[in-house]
Amino acid sequence: MFYRPADGHPLPHNPFNAIVTPRPIGWISTRGADGRDNLAPYSFFNAVAYDPPQVMFASTAAKPDRDGTKDSVANIRDTGVFCVNIVEYAARDAMNATSAALPREVDEFAHAGLPKAPCDTIDCPRVATAPANLECRLTQIVQLPGAANFVVFGEVTGIHLRDDCIVDGRFDVTRFQPLARMGYRDYAVIREVFALNRPGEQGE
User: Fold this and answer.
1) What pLDDT digit, counting tens, does each position of 19-59 carry?
2) Does residue 201 belong to any structural domain of this protein?
3) How far apart, in Å, are the Cα atoms of 14 and each of 8, 110, 135?
4) Which range marks the domain in which residue 75 is found?
5) What CATH code is carried by the domain that includes residue 92?
6) SS (HEC) of the chain
7) Is residue 197 part of a domain?
8) Transmembrane region positions (predicted)?
9) Per-residue pLDDT tens for 89-101?
């Protein structure tokens, strides 16, 4: 089967999100210039550089009260900071609750019953119980083709790791089981990992 996205697809549901999987979820927390806090999940998210450490997420929808984008991007434009909270399997329902299209004055932390903690290097809240948090300063926002497609890049200025996830000097993802986004309404959970050495590398 072959199709050109510009012409539409012949399937009952768009397969694009099911092709590029699994995708990590960036649970993005921000604080607006008015002091209101926001929390929302984005599955177009990843790390993009080591030195300095940098991440990105993309927002692809808009709210009528946010001038062509969503609360997260609007807040970051205003303040220049955001925090990425890593989503564990145990937080799947809370993460899903924060994906609702809520009015800008609603605090998703309270809506989902999540505890907040302050960040150390930026003025922004973080999910206190998350297995890891990445405090970020905005480097650039890039507008992509399409009505509401924005990619936000940030430099990581502070990292929180939950103590129970550190095992023998490693951040052990099996301790919290990361949630990943698949296609349609599907998700996956990481419970098992394996290692591969690159050609020429010595095993540990």
Assistant:
1) 999 999 999 999 999 999 999 999 999 999 999 999 999 99
2) no
3) 9, 33, 34
4) 5-189
5) 2.30.110.10
6) CCCCHHHCCCCCCCCHHHHCCCEECEEEEEECCCCCEEEEEECCEEEEECCCCEEEEEECCCCCCCCCCCHHHHHHHHHCEEEEEECEHHHHHHHHHCCCCCCCCCCHHHHHCCCEEECCCCCCEEECCCCEEEEEEEEEEEECCCCCCEEEEEEEEEEEECHHHEECCEECHHHCCEEEECCCCCEEECCCCCCCCCCCCCCC
7) no
8) none
9) 999 999 999 999 8
**Given the structure tokens 């809520």, which residue do they identify?**
102
How many Cβ atoms sit within 10 Å of the Cβ of residue 41?
22
Task: Tell whether 199 is covered by a domain.
Answer: no
The pTM (predicted TM-score) of the whole model is 0.94
Domain total in the chain: 1
